[in-house]
C-alpha cells in the first residue's frame, strides 16, 4: 500500500529552487521504503512573477496551495524587489493565512561541524535545543503605518499584537514538546521589563500552562540575556518559546553557533491541521550565489525531514537526519556543488555509498 | 584652576551601588591632574524607595537631577518589584525625559580577555566597534496596552514609534562618529523586510544623510543576520546604528563576545546638551551577587571614563581606559573583590602599582 501526499512546492527566489530540488530528490529516495509517495505541484512565486505580473500571492493560488497536504518552500526575497514586498506579500502571507502558529526551529551541533564558538564553550555540554517561535502574531502582524512619508515630519509605527488565544496555543505546544524531550526544560524568552503588556501576557500564560506540565522545569530570560547565553552556554537550552520577532533573531544566532544557516531547517506548523504546514530552510535566497550550484542544500533537505515527521513518518524523517548527520560529520574541506551534496545525502539515505 | 562638575549619582539596585562607588573613586583619582573636581549628589532611587514610598522617580527628583552636569547610574531592577516597574518608571524615564537619544555602546576585545569565540574567529581582525543605539523611540516608548487582562480574550499591544526627527538625529550622530574613526564604516541594522514602515524610514534616512558623509561607507544588515556576523566575523563592524530594541539585543551579544557584560560600558547621551547625559554599565543589577563584593566594577569604571570624555576631557578618559586595559590584560585567575578591582585600576590611573 502506498500513501500518497500532495506537496505544494514554492522554490521561490535566488538559491531557493536549487536547494528545494535536492530536498525533493531526497524525499523521493526515502519515500518508497515507507510506503509513501509524493505528488508535487510547482508554484511559480517570487521575484520573477512579481516583475511579470505585479502579483506576490494571488488569492486563487493561495487557495490551491491550501488544498495540498504540505508545502515545501525554498527562499523568498530578491534585491530587484523593494524590501518587504515578497517577504510580507508571499512568505508571511502564507504563514499567516495558513495559521502556522508554531514556527519550529531545531538547533543541534553535530560532531565535526565548525562553530564560531571556542572549545571551552562547546565542551560544556551537548548543544541540542529547539526554538518554538510564535508565527502569527507579535510585531510581524503588519499592523502599522506611516504618515507624512518622505518629509521631516514622517512618523512610522509598527504594532505588535499579542492575544491570550495566540500566546496560549503556542506555549502549550512548546510545553508538550519539552515534556516529550529527555531534559523537559522550557525557557521563555521575552523582554517583559520593557514590553510590559505583551511581556506580562507571555509570562502569565507560561505560568498558567506550567501547572498542566508539572514535570517540565521553566525559566525566563530577557531576549538580550538570551543572546549572551546562546554564545556562552548554549547547552543550557532545551526548548525555547518566544515571540515572532525574538524567535527570528534567536534562531539565526542559534543557526550560526551550530554550523551556520546552511544547516538550519524549519517548519511552519499548523498543529491543528486546518491548513497545510510549510517547511523551509532558515537561510534566505542568497542572490549573490544563485544559479551557481554553490548553495548548501542541507537545510532544505533537513526541512524535508521535518515535513516527513509532521506527516506522521518519524522513521523516514530519522533516516534523513541520520544521512545528513553522517554527511556533515564526514565532510571534507573540498567544496561540493549543490547537486553533489544532495546526491551524497540521497545515496546515504538509499543505503549506498556517498557520491561525489 | 579647577573646573568643578556636579554629578547626580544613582546607584540603584543590587550591585549598582557597589560598582558605582568604585567608578566614583577612580574619577576622584583621575580628576586633579586634569584640573577637575566633582561634587556628587546621591539619589536614593530603586527598589528600596519603591517599597518604602511607592515612588520610582518623582518629578521633583527628576528636576533636581536635571540640574546636574552628568549622571552616573549603577543598575536598576529587583526581583521583589514587578518586572518593568523600575525599568520603565526609573531607568527609561530618565533616558526619555532627558532626551538621551544616543545610547552609545562601544565594544572592544582587549588582548588576553576570554571570549566565547574560537581563535579562528577572533584572529580575523581586531574587534573594535561601537553601537549607536537610538534611545528615545522605537518599541521602548511605552505606547501600548492591554484589554481583558487575565481572560482568554486578552489582547496586548506594543507600539514602536519612529519619527524622521528622531531617526535623523541619531543617524547623523552615528555618521559623525564613523567619520571620526579610521575605518569610516557605518552599518545600519534593522528588519526592513518585515517592519516595513519603520524600517524604510531608517533606510531612507541613512541613504539621505550618507550624502553628507561621502567618505563613510555604508551597509545594511537585517537584525537576524547581524547576530550571525557578530559571532562569525565581528571584525567587520565599525559603527552600527540601530533602533532602541535591536540595539538592546545586539549590545548584550556584543558584550558577550568581547569578554562579557562585566566589561561593557555605555553612555546615554544628549548630544544637544539640553539635559545631562547619563553613564552606566550595560549589565543589570545582578541581585544574586549583590552586597557580596563579587561584582566586577570594570564596566562602571569605563562608564565613568565615557562621562569624562563627554564632559570634554578625552585625555582623562583615555587614562581610565588605559588603566582598565592594563588591568584586564594582566588579570590573573585569582578572584578579586569589587574593591580590589577598583583599587587596582585606581592605582594604575594614579601611576602606582596595582593593588590587591
Ligand atoms: C525572510 C524573513 C521575512 C523571515 C522572517 O523574518 O521570518 C526570515 O528571516 C526567517 O527567519 O524565516
Ligand atoms: C534594564 C533594561 C530596561 C535596559 C534596556 O532594555 O535598555 C537594559 O537591558 C539595557 O540594555 O540598558
Automatic annotation (TrEMBL), chains A, B:
It catalyses: (2R,3S)-3-isopropylmalate + NAD(+) = 4-methyl-2-oxopentanoate + CO2 + NADH. Its main location: cytoplasm. Pathway: Amino-acid biosynthesis; L-leucine biosynthesis; L-leucine from 3-methyl-2-oxobutanoate: step 3/4. NAD(+) binds at residues 284-296. Residues 6-345 form the Isopropylmalate dehydrogenase-like domain. InterPro entries: ICDH/IPMDH (IPR050501), IsoCit/isopropylmalate_DH_CS (IPR019818), IsoPropMal-DH-like_dom (IPR024084), LeuB_actb (IPR023698). GO terms for biological process: L-leucine biosynthetic process. Catalyzes the oxidation of 3-carboxy-2-hydroxy-4-methylpentanoate (3-isopropylmalate) to 3-carboxy-4-methyl-2-oxopentanoate. The product decarboxylates to 4-methyl-2 oxopentanoate. Homodimer. This is 3-isopropylmalate dehydrogenase. It comes from Aeromicrobium endophyticum. The lineage of its organism: Bacteria, Bacillati, Actinomycetota, Actinomycetes, Propionibacteriales.
Amino acid at each position: 500500500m502506498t500513501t500518497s501526499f500532495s506537496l505544494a512546492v514554492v522554490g521561490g527566489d535566488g538559491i531557493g529552487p536549487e536547494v528545494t530540488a535536492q530536498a525533493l530528490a531526497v524525499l523521493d529516495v526515502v519515500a518508497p521504503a515507507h510506503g509513501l509517495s509524493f505528488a508535487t505541484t510547482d508554484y511559480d512565486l517570487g521575484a520573477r512573477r512579481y516583475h511579470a505580473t505585479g502579483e506576490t500571492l494571488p488569492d486563487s493560488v493561495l487557495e490551491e496551495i491550501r488544498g495540498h497536504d504540505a508545502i515545501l518552500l525554498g527562499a523568498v526575497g530578491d534585491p530587484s524587489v523593494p524590501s518587504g514586498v515578497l517577504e510580507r506579500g508571499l512568505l508571511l502571507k502564507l504563514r499567516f493565512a495558513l495559521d502556522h502558529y508554531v514556527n519550529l526551529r531545531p538547533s543541534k551541533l553535530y560532531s565535526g561541524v565548525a562553530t564560531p564558538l571556542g572549545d571551552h564553550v562547546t565542551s560544556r555540554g551537548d548543544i541540542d535545543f529547539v526554538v518554538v517561535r510564535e508565527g502569527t502574531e507579535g510585531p510581524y502582524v503588519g499592523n502599522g503605518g506611516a504618515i507624512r512619508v518622505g518629509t521631516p515630519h514622517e512618523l512610522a509605527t509598527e504594532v505588535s499584537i499579542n492575544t491570550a488565544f495566540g500566546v496560549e496555543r503556542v506555549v502549550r505546544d512548546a510545553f508538550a514538546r519539552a515534556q516529550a524531550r529527555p531534559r523537559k526544560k522550557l525557557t521563555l524568552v521575552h523582554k517583559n521589563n520593557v514590553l510590559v503588556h505583551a511581556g506580562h501576557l507571555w509570562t502569565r500564560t507560561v505560568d498558567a500552562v506550567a501547572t498542566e506540565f508539572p514535570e517540565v522545569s521553566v525559566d525566563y530570560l530577557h531576549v538580550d540575556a538570551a543572546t549572551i547565553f546562546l554564545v556562552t552556554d548554549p547547552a543550557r537550552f532545551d526548548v525555547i518559546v518566544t515571540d515572532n520577532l525574538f524567535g527570528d533573531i534567536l534562531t539565526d544566532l542559534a543557526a550560526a553557533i551550530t554550523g551556520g544557516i546552511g544547516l538550519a531547517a524549519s517548519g511552519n506548523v499548523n498543529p491543528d491541521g486546518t491548513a497545510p504546514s510549510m517547511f523551509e530552510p532558515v537561510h534566505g535566497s542568497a542572490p549573490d550565489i544563485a544559479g551557481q550550484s554553490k548553495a548548501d542544500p542541507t537545510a532544505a533537505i533537513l526541512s524535508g525531514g521535518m515535513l516527513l515527521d509532521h506527516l506522521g513518518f518519524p522513521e523516514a524523517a530519522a533516516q534523513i537526519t541520520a544521512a545528513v548527520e553522517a554527511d556533515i560529520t564526514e565532510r571534507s574541506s573540498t567544496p561540493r556543488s549543490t547537486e553533489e551534496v544532495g546526491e551524497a545525502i540521497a545515496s546515504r539515505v538509499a543505503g549506498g555509498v556517498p557520491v561525489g
